[in-house]
Input
Amino acid sequence: MLPPPPTNAIDGETKDLQNFLALCASNAYNGSPFHRSIPSFMIQTGSPASATLKVSSSIYGSDFEDEIRPSLRHNSRGIVSMANKGPNTNGSQFFILYAPAPHLDGKNTVFGRVIGDEGLKVLGEMEGKEVDKKGRMSADLVKIDRVTIHANPIAG
Output
């Protein structure tokens, strides 16, 4: 079961960020597999580990709207963005860019980035994994052990 939406939202805080932070705090992503990797583009994850790979549940009980902020762009390696199935279909799934992807600007909501040399090193290791034509890792499926939030605007 997913946690309820936060009630102490900070002014200007977005649903995508509230959703991601609440899912992290509830450990919903722990054990979640990276189920699609396209070298030189992105790697995708975010289905709760207890669900199938096609599940993308938000804390709001259903999909929620895009929150495109023109100042946040898909302009570098390590950008974290909501995965969706089209406009206003955000849930729990997200992706991390291996390379800039400006064609996603205005289509997917950017809400974070991988920080530090260690994080970028791990991203490089994941990009180097062998995948099939559909972007599925052919061996040793990579899973999220746990998520560490280094700057949480909700926490006081």
